[in-house]
Amino acid sequence: MQIVRHSQQTLKTALISKNPVLVSQYEKLDAGEQRLMNEAFQPASDLFGPITLHSQSDWITSHPEAPQDFEQFFSDPYRKIPSPDKHSIYIQSIGSLGNTRIISEEYIKWLQGYCKAYFYGLRVKLLEPVPVSATKCSFRVNENTQNLQIHAGDILKFLKKKKPEDAFCIVGITMIDLYPRDSWNFVFGQASLTDGVGIFSFARYGSDFYSLRYEGKVKKLKKTSSSDYSIFDNYYIPEITSVLLLRSCKTLTHEIGHIFGLRHCQWLACLMQGSNHLEEADRRPLNLCPICLRKLQCAIGFSVVERYRALVQWIDDDSAGTPGATPKHSREDNGNLPKPMEAFKEWKEWIIKCLTVLQK
């Protein structure tokens, strides 16, 4: 294992900058916000730690990139900024997200609520779910894993056409695996930052995807024409567990972060770290490091205390007595399902520690 450790001065400059205007901007932040963000360059901090690399296949090793500090983010002429008339994040579900209509509807509401808290201050709206056929996308069966896949680029074109006037961005979510081009095996997601659109799949986040007993394998693709989408009528959907929900929340917020102009983080353990594989994505925390938190706060203008309180509220809402997973077969007339929150327990404890620092 390798630890990526930067000097205190490097982290301080990455966070605050040496530009007098940006330093002055930082000094005008609430005292509690400065106290929390200053944890970035405290060696003994138990809130923000260094990035750890576990293999040569990890993102930083295999995808060398120039790091982005706050000043570079602030000065980027191409980054997208929400405005009063473009202040909404839209979520478009493609195909069913759960084994029943109730599970599918609740799942997307959980993601909507999480995004509202994470991007605190922006509106998050749901578009009516659409079947795969509505996108007119290409599709295939993966030769290696024998599962259904839809073409990410085609979905992006569909989303761009559907983007509402007041949208800061529109993101598609699906439980069907994605591929970006014929030569690629798969992709977790794909986005166009200039168009403010993205598509993300949670198919590989199910606990059984990489197991021999995976039920989503398709023996042969039978289609009478390019417009025959009948194979998607009863496609396999993984069980919605707490871990799958956590992984979905991570992917959704990481990718929307890119649409805000946040590049992959190379400073501290952070949601905005790149990930090459599921194991690395699971090591990545839900929280932003102080440098990326300042970037997002600069873009949206939220109070850090209010944002953290909203995240705790989201975890606490409807989570009492939550089972480990949603039932595979629920009666359609069931009421609201409880959110499976076990996987978020440690993060809630971490947020409460941050609130203690903020409110000293």
Please, could you describe this protein's structure?
- The protein is an alpha/beta fold and 360 residues long.
- It has two domains: 152 residues, no CATH class; 169 residues, Collagenase (Catalytic Domain), CATH 3.40.390.
- It is built from twelve helices and ten strands.
- The strands form three sheets. The protein has a five-stranded mixed beta sheet with strand order 4-3-7-10-9, sandwiched between helices. The protein has a three-stranded mixed beta sheet with strand order 5-6-8.
- Helix 6 packs across helix 8, helix 6 runs antiparallel to helix 11 and helix 11 runs antiparallel to helix 12.
- The longest helix is centred in the N-terminal third of the chain and has 18 residues.
- It is globular.
- About 4% of the residues have low confidence.
Terminal residue distance = 36 Å
What is the chain-wise order of helices and strands? EHHHEHHEHEEEHEEEEHHHHH
Gyration radius over CA = 21 Å
Instruction: Let me know the average pLDDT.
Output: 90
Main β-sheet, in a few words? Answer: 5 strands, mixed
CATH topology of the largest domain: Collagenase (Catalytic Domain)
How many domains in all? Answer: 2
Concise summary:
This protein has twelve helices and ten strands. By secondary structure, the protein is of the alpha/beta class.
Chart the SSEs and their pairings.
Layout: E1 2-4, H1 8-16, H2 20-27, H3 31-37, E2 51-53, H4 59-62, H5 70-75, E3 88-94, H6 101-118, E4 123-126, E5 139-141, E6 148-151, H7 152-162, E7 167-174, E8 177-179, E9 189-192, E10 197-201, H8 242-259, H9 278-283, H10 290-300, H11 304-316, H12 345-358
Parallel strand pairs: 3-4, 3-7, 6-8, 7-10
Antiparallel strand pairs: 1-2, 5-6, 9-10
